[in-house]
C-alpha cells in the first residue's frame, strides 16, 4: 500500500516591470515619510512647540508650510511619474530625485533627541531611496531590433545568390 505524498507546486514568479517597482518603492517611501512625521506628534513637547508657532527650529509660516508641502509633493508625484514617463526620462528623473532626497532625508536627524525613532525611520527611508536608485540604474535595455537579429548572415545570402 502506498501513501500519496503531497507535491509542492512551484509558485509562479512573474516578472515585475521596473515602472511598477519604482512606483511601489516611492509609495513605501511616502508612507514612511508621512508616518515618521505623524508619530513625531507623540514626542513630548512637539505639540506645544507647534502651538507656539515652531517646528524644530523653524517658525511656522506660509514659507515653511509651502516648503514642507513641496518636499512631500515631489515624492508623491514620483509615484505617478514612475508609471507614466517614457523610459529614458523616467530613469533620469528617478535617479536625480532619489539622489537629491538622500541629503534631505539625512537632514531630518539633525537636532533630534529621539535618535532611535528618527534613526530607524531615516535608515528605512535611505534603504528605499537606494532601491529606487538601483531599480532605475539597472533598468533593462531593449534587445537589438528584430530585423538585425533575424537577418541572414553573409554566407546564406551568397549561397542564395549563387543558386
From TrEMBL:
Its name, as the record gives it, is MFS transporter
Which superkingdom? Bacteria
Keyword hit for Transmembrane: yes
> Which parts of the chain span the membrane according to its record?
22-43, 63-85, 92-109, 115-133
| Keywords for this protein | Membrane, Transmembrane, Transmembrane helix
Q: Which Pfam families match?
A: DUF6326
Q: Which InterPro entries match?
A: DUF6326 (IPR046289)
Amino acid at each position: 500500500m502506498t501513501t500519496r505524498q503531497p507535491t509542492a507546486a512551484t509558485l509562479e514568479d512573474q516578472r515585475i516591470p521596473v515602472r511598477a517597482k519604482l512606483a511601489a518603492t516611492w509609495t513605501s517611501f511616502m508612507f514612511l515619510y508621512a508616518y515618521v512625521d505623524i508619530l513625531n506628534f507623540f514626542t513630548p513637547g512637539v505639540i506645544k512647540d507647534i502651538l507656539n508657532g515652531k517646528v524644530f527650529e523653524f517658525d511656522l509660516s506660509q514659507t515653511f508650510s509651502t516648503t514642507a508641502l513641496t518636499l512631500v509633493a515631489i515624492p508623491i508625484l514620483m509615484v505617478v511619474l514612475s508609471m507614466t514617463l517614457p523610459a529614458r526620462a523616467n530613469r533620469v528623473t528617478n535617479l536625480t530625485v532619489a539622489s537629491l532626497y538622500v541629503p534631505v532625508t539625512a537632514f531630518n536627524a539633525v537636532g533630534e533627541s529621539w535618535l532611535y525613532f528618527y534613526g530607524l525611520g531615516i535608515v528605512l527611508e535611505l534603504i528605499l531611496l537606494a532601491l529606487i536608485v538601483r531599480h532605475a540604474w539597472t533598468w533593462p535595455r531593449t534587445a537589438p531590433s528584430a530585423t538585425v537579429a533575424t537577418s541572414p548572415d553573409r554566407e546564406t545570402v551568397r549561397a542564395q545568390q549563387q543558386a
